[in-house]
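writing this on my phone so excuse typos. first protein, seq and then structure
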Amino acid sequence: MAVILLVVFGIFMTAHTLSDAVSGEARMIPIYNIETAEKKVAITFNCAVGNSDIDSILETLDKYNVKATFFLLGSWADDYINEVQKIYDAEHELGNHGYSHKDLPTMNYENIMLDIHKCNETVRNITGHSPTMFRAPSGAYDNKTISAAENLGMITIQ
């Protein structure tokens, strides 16, 4: 079974590579890491479900004087305005995780733009500041997704 899965995966990846080569479109890749000589690590959280752990996370980060990036789902931010404000007031970075947690690669470019923009507007309405970083819901992205984020002035982070 494992061999069959590997063969199917290999065929899928080859087909994707050939498709990109034929279309002439290079696959865009979000930022996964940044090389640095400094001993640093980036801590990130996706805020998409519930709010019961926010206070505990913020207390722990504060205890150790650590800053993190919180990628907020726009609909989550609408539901948990106080938590968004607490994260922002604690001087953590706020990122965009889309508004609705949809599978963006299945959507057209205009709807991807609207989803990302709606999250930015939601966060800006709560804090007065818009996110500059975007993380695709479920890690699902394609060139349309990254282009949409870039056209909104955002950097895509995985």
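second protein below, same order as before
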Amino acid sequence: MVNREGLTLRQAALLAGFGYLLTTPVFFIEFFIYPQLVIRGHIEQTVANIGSHHGLFLAAIFGYLINFIGDIIAAVGLFILLAPVNRAVSLLAAWFRLVYTTVALVGLFNLVTAYRMIITPDYVNAFGSAAFHAQIDLLLHSFRYVWTMGLVIFALHLFLIAVLVYRSGYVPKILGLIIAVDALCLMAIELRPYFWPTANIGWIFIGTFGELVFMLWLLFMGWRIRDPEAPAG
């Protein structure tokens, strides 16, 4: 049965899985590319790295952009997939993810500005070396600060998705529990600098891989979902 959005639940599952798939390269950027360029506490070295490898930094920016586009696609797919459980809650979850994506994209403009400033020699001449490096440092940190706040909203999205998945009856309940753990771990990690900055909770990062499990299920098992029967006329 095709619902009012024009997709079956199977198609929605695959759409959501494809959206998730577009978000996976961000892990490579976060753990391999970005740390090679941005050295914490050494802004002069960071600027030199980006200046020498500006193509790599630009690739990271576009990688983040693809990630956020994937979030939009996943939000649409998950809304359609879980609307039969509770349409209002599913819509709210989708809006949370879209708000997160908007916030993250705003933060991404800081990296774009930093890139333009670094590759344009006129800026360092206009600001002076010290002020120029301070400005780049602020832009790089602003990206992180804004994205962190966005991820708090994203964690709220995950809580709602976890409840809907658990109650769906056509997606395994265990996935709902895994996603709930993911949401809790993500919330704790992103709020740590504000509420418990000295706590050593890096180990709970392992709990944030729940979405990877969900993505694999959507891509490889989502096609087996059966649409609810239309009510008898």
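The chain has one domain: 9-224. thats all i got for now
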